[in-house]
Write a structure and sequence with these properties.
Layout (H helix, E strand, L loop, with lengths): L3 E5 L6 H12 L2 E4 H14 L7 H7 L5 E6 L2 E6 L2 E2 L7 H11 L2 H17 L2 E5 L2 H5 L5 E6 L2 H14 L6 H17 L12 E4 L5 H17 L1
Parallel strand pairs: 1-6, 1-7, 2-6, 7-8
Antiparallel strand pairs: 3-4, 4-5
């Protein structure tokens, strides 16, 4: 029988990194839903469509095909056959992803994709509304968070490794703005599910966070 582990939380909390390791250790399929929204944000931006132009964004959905594929064991995201995985992790695309994810038609467009994957596999799925909207019956729900400063520090380090010129102050400001936008949007706002376990990773190493998450998951699965 398939089961789902839903991990929600704000941007930069380490959801994707921890979920990938957790899925690998538990031998489950990892689904990075944020990459799906980022890919749409990237496509819209590249088409020159303003993020405030909801009508035009909705109009391009019919011409979009967004897929998650595993290439050499690594999850990659494709838009109309093009691998966009290496272009969707910048602060600008993070903000674009937040903007498009607030549009009901975009969320509806990706809803079936996410649920279909979970229906046919045991998964670890992370995002903003996995436990509240996408997979409300998930066997395990975790709300993963950390202070804005801690999350900005992690994201800034990642961007520096990629040669991105963004400053720490810019990354922190983007993080705070995205937190507000994600938690105040009308459609599927970021919030902790009532039956989710709250995990704050501020100050923890990746190994410590994974170990704590794994212990929670195994305990919940045994119940």
């Amino acid at each position: 029988m398939n089961y789902a582990i839903a991990i929600d939380g704000p941007a930069g909390a380490g959801k994707s990194t921890i979920a990938k390791v957790l899925a690998k250790e538990l031998k489950l399929i990892y689904v990075d839903t944020g990459a799906l929204y980022r890919s749409i944000g990237y496509y819209v931006t590249r088409q020159g469509i303003a993020l405030e132009d909801t009508e035009s964004i909705v109009a391009v959905l019919d011409s979009l095909k967004v897929e998650l594929r595993y290439v050499d064991g690594i999850q990659r995201v494709f838009v109309n056959g093009e691998d966009v995985s290496d272009y969707i992790r910048t602060p600008a695309i993070s903000m674009a992803a937040s903007a498009v994810s607030a549009i009901p038609a975009v969320r509806e467009y990706l809803l079936a994709t996410q649920r279909d994957i979970a229906a046919h596999n045991s998964v670890v799925m992370d995002g903003r509304d996995i436990g509240t909207v996408i997979l409300p019956d998930a066997k395990v729900k975790i709300f993963l968070t950390a202070s804005a400063e801690s999350r900005a520090t992690r994201r800034f380090a990642e961007l520096q490794e990629k040669g991105d010129p963004a400053t720490y102050e810019e990354v922190l400001a983007d993080m705070v703005k995205r937190d507000y936008d994600d938690s105040h949007r009308a459609t599927a706002p970021l919030k902790q599910a009532e039956d989710a376990v709250l995990v704050d990773t501020s100050g923890e190493t990746l190994e410590q966070s994974v170990a704590r998450m794994k212990a929670i998951v195994l305990k919940k699965l045994a119940e």
